[in-house]
Amino acid sequence: MRFLLAAVAVVLGMTSCDEFKSFMDNPVNSHLEISETTVTMLNGTTYDLKVTTLSDQPITFTSSDEKVVTVSAQGVVEAVGVGTATVTVSVAGNDISAASTKEVAVEVLPAMKDALENGAKIGFAFNLNGVDVEYLFQNQEGEFVEIPQNQMQQGAPRRAVVESQLIPVLIYDKTSNTLILTINQQVDEEMSLVLMVIFNLNDNTIQIIPGNPLTKVLNFKVRIGNVEVTASLKKKEVAPTGISLNKSELELVVDQPEALVAYVEPLDATDKSVTWTSDKPEVATVDANGKVTAIAAGEANITAQIGQFSATCKVTVAPAVNPNAYLAWNGKQKKLVATAIPEGATKVTSSTTTWSAGTYVVEGQVDIDGTIELSGAVELIIKDGAKLTVYGQIDGGTNKLYIYGQAGMSGELVVNNSDDNAISDLSTLEVHSAKVKATSSCDYHGGIVSIVAFNVYDGSVEAKGTAANGYGIHLNEGGSMNIYGGEVKAEGKGDNALCCYGIMCDNSKEKTSVTVHGGKLWAGCAGNKALYSNITLAIDKSPSFNVEIECSSDNSNWKGTVGTPDSKYVRVGY
Which of 24, 64, 85, 483 has the most Cβ atoms closer than 10 angstroms to its Cβ? Predict the structure, then answer.
């Protein structure tokens, strides 16, 4: 201790024994600090006192009236009765610091339910779609009445000015001991729900139910009298009721991958975490996202499970196919089948810019700078690992173009055009088992344009218009798009009502149809709409393809819809 005191004297800058003796006769204060000197509580609630001190001695807490408040050794104050009391916080002194004491005045108001019944005011404050909104109510003869702004006391919550008239109503449900706040909006003499808030007084939890899925509520606060109530947000839990797969049977060849899609019901289920397993991983494996890879010849069952619900797909794996074969859709069998590449097929090179009727094969990396012109029906086979990049346009000349890949579905066609459309003017465009990316960066042009019949059987298609005003896919008057598998993405840009769409068509009386039989479709345009008004979107549902059309205004919050949606973003099968 002698050495400790000497060290303290040095730290405090004492240079003589007289100064040190004076310090010992008058030790410094312990610097006891507390977070609040006055606290208002509701009966039945607790408050945690925050105490700091420089002393190494224990801190003690005492209550002047334990019928009003009790206090634990850790400084947790519990309101047990209505009234006032004083909590004393003390710390003992030691050789270098004096004892210190602080007092906290505590007022305990009736419990929330009792306070409201006795006329205490209750205020709600929150941010509604970017606007700060506040309401104040008071129980008057058993009913909660909103207190107008001009009757609010200074410091009480005030409602922000909003463009449209919002009408709040607060009721108390005695059976469940909950407060229910509904906010309605009057539109053309009719009322529509904007927001419902359920405040459970038993556990101080809040459940927010928006009238529209796009409604956003932030920073929700509740005040009883002058006491802010700590309330936790309680999300509505929606349990899954079932699960299905996009395919019940799958035929693959060794090394061929294919993605299964699990559909959890209902669409708004809180937890959509699906567990994937294979009963014979030596035949076929599956990853956490449902991607199946064929390993060896045989049969395996791939199961997707959520909770007590599961769905299974039977996978049949055939031996590896001939490397000189491609995959094409067989309409009778409703699947891709291996087909031999015909002898005499033309090998595509950088100078192959005029394609007459026949079969063309892409091997390795091939770049073509300029326009490719079709003068007849063309079958384009892109081998696994190969890539054809066109810096210009594929001009179909109203002919037909069939694009195929192999078992690995890794063959890729990329078309980028800065002066015109990327792929255009085809009576038929089919993608069977390859990757196709078509992008136009020319204003008022698109990725895949002027197509009469567009069919996608597997693989992927991505079409974009990236200029200030552009579109993803354009279908001719009365044309059609059918998706049987794979994934199609069409993205437009800009806000021009004539051309800025994910998928558009000619403005005529004859409708243009987009039908999803399987696989996935995503279309969007942030500045305008996903689909032109003359397009009808439909789903060919089946037991293995039971999905809904979903729409969104921000490509983040999605909701199911019936019919063709009039929104910025649309998707099917995700």
Answer: 483
**What value, to the nearest 5°, has the Cα angle with vertex 479 and ends 383 and 454?**
10
> Are 442 and 415 in contact, with CB atoms under 8 Å apart?
no
Query: SS3 sequence, 436-496?
Result: EEEEECCCCEEEEEEEEEEEECCEEEEEEECCCCEEEEEEEEEEEEEECCCEEEEEEECCC
Task: Quote the tokens at residue 452.
Answer: 């009469």
Closest CA to 559 of 543, 548, 544: 548
Omega of the bond prior to 266 within 30 degrees of 0, cis? yes
Beta strands at 46-48 and 354-355: parallel, antiparallel or unpaired: unpaired
Mapped onto helix, strand or coil, the DSSP state of residue 4 is helix
Residue type, 420: D
pTM of the model: 0.52
pLDDT digits (tens, 9 = 90+) for 502-560: 999 987 778 899 999 999 999 999 999 999 988 999 999 888 888 999 999 999 999 99
Question: By the 8 A CB rule, do 572 and 488 touch?
Answer: no
Q: What is the separation of C-alpha 86 from the centre of its chain, rounded to a whole number of angstroms? A: 49
Q: How many CB atoms lie within 10 A of CB 275?
A: 12
Tokens of 460: 């992927």
* Residues forming a β-bridge with 132: 127
Phi then psi for residue 215, to 5 deg, are -70, 130
Q: How far apart are CA 552 and CA 568, in angstroms?
A: 6
User: Is residue 266 within 8 Å of 237, Cβ to Cβ?
Assistant: no
> How far is it, in rounded angstroms, from Cα 264 to Cα 76?
45
Sheet holding 284-286, edge to edge: 257-259, 291-294, 284-286
